[in-house]
Design brief:
Blueprint: E1 6-12, E2 21-27, E3 35-45, H1 47-53, E4 70-78, E5 90-94, E6 103-107, E7 111-113, H2 120-124, H3 127-140, E8 149-151, H4 157-168, E9 174-178, H5 181-190, E10 194-197, H6 203-210, E11 216-221, H7 227-233, E12 235-243, H8 256-261, E13 265-268, H9 276-289, H10 291-295, E14 303-308, H11 312-321, E15 327-331
Parallel strand pairs: 8-9, 8-11, 9-10, 11-12, 12-13, 14-15
Antiparallel strand pairs: 1-2, 3-4, 3-6, 3-15, 4-5, 5-7
Helix pairs in contact: 3-4, 3-9
The chain binds NADP nicotinamide-adenine-dinucleotide phosphate (NAP).
């Protein structure tokens, strides 16, 4: 197959609103050592892409300035040192940028096979959320069967995966906050024991009541700010607080008496700057522990709406309304 020298990509012309996203022609990337070149069939949209567009989340050194952190498609070329994957293989991949394009390079260890029966859109909806949820809920948060969890933003791309995986791994009670009753119902349909409409209910009071003041074992937090102290107040003894975003601020006033008294763990992580080796280790764990659930149809990404690549600005406008439940996708 001949690979064109130029490709279509969506560029962030300047920091700003969705309209700064423009389709442009760029040189088709060539795979470096250990990388594959993927002809992109679909790409996922994530909240961090919106932050990057606004100028608040610059790509790490060496990463493409084109947005897009996850893709699915067919491998059309391989770099030196690639030994597991071949031209023609269909994969989904976690990338550090460059996903909103017709071609994108990915390190071999960050590629995973398409689960059985999955479309390209479904496969592209997985890497960013599944790597993030796996690492933060199960590796850092150490959630095990029978333990309870509070997932903030339960209807988000991340939240819908966290609920399903917590359920699939036999968590006890699964609480999920979301910004409307409909979103709470969606969380409950995915496996949450109780959706909490954070705009009308006090999640601290709901959890204290539902757990007879024991609290939950793990909190997955994407809100930050004043939520952090509230989260700590409803963690059980030996509980784990895992931060993955700080939508309400990076600064919090926290009572560390509770951290000592309940022997809490406060942790968190950001996926994008992690090394290829670290992401490769997460991919290997996902393939072993989570891919069988996907192959068996027990867990599926929730796709809210799909747009053609050229309508990336429209897709970002939808992301900003926060009316979506699950993932917003681009097809190429
Ligand atoms: N650390 C990492 O490695 C990593 C990786 C990927 C994503 N993230 C972060 O994870 C979050 C989810 O990403 P996504 O792509 O899935 O985005 P998304 O679908 O746009 O989700 C954002 C979510 O935050 C919820 N939210 C906002 N304020 C809230 C509040 N006060 N209480 C409870 N929930 C609240 C929103 O709920 P409503 O719409 O109902 O208000 C929405 O569901 C983003 O903040 C993103 O930056 C982190």
């Amino acid at each position: 197959m001949t690979i064109p020298q130029t490709m279509t990509a969506i560029e962030i012309t300047e920091p700003g609103g969705p309209d700064v996203l423009r389709a442009v022609s760029r040189p088709t990337p060539t795979p470096a050592t250990g990388e594959v070149l993927i002809q992109v069939a679909a790409a996922g949209i994530n909240r961090p892409d919106g932050l990057q567009r606004k100028g608040h989340y610059p790509p790490p050194p060496g990463a493409s300035d084109i947005p897009g952190l996850e893709i699915a498609g067919k491998i059309v070329a391989v770099g030196l040192g690639v030994n597991r994957l071949r031209v023609g293989d269909e994969v989904c991949a976690l990338v550090t940028g460059g996903g909103y394009a017709t071609y994108c390079v990915a390190p071999e260890p960050q590629c995973l096979p398409l689960p059985k029966g999955f479309s390209m859109v479904e496969a592209a909806a997985m890497p960013e959320t599944f790597f993030t949820v796996w690492h933060n809920v199960f590796e850092r948060g150490r959630l095990v069967a029978g333990e309870s969890i509070l997932i903030h933003g339960g209807s988000s791309g991340i939240g819908t995966v966290a609920i399903q995986l917590a359920k699939a791994f036999n968590a006890g009670a699964i609480f999920a906050t979301a910004g409307s009753r409909d979103k709470c119902h969606a969380c409950e349909k995915l496996g949450a024991t109780r959706g909490i409409d954070y705009k009308h209910e006090d999640f601290v009071a709901v959890i204290k009541q539902a757990t007879a003041n024991r609290g939950v074992d793990v909190v997955l937090d994407m809100v930050g700010g004043d939520y952090i102290q509230k989260n700590l107040s409803i963690l059980a003894v030996e509980g784990r607080h895992v931060s993955i975003a700080t939508q309400r601020g990076v600064v919090a006033e926290v009572n560390f008496g509770a951290v000592m008294g309940k022997r809490l763990t406060v942790t968190g992580s950001g996926l994008r700057p992690r090394s290829v080796a670290e992401k490769g280790a997460m991919a290997a764990a996902l393939k072993e522990k989570v891919w069988p659930l996907l192959d068996a149809g027990k867990v599926k990404p929730v796709i809210f709406k799909t747009f053609p690549l050229a309508e990336a600005a429209e897709a970002h406008r939808l992301l900003e309304t926060s009316t979506h439940i699950g993932k917003i996708m681009l097809t190429v």
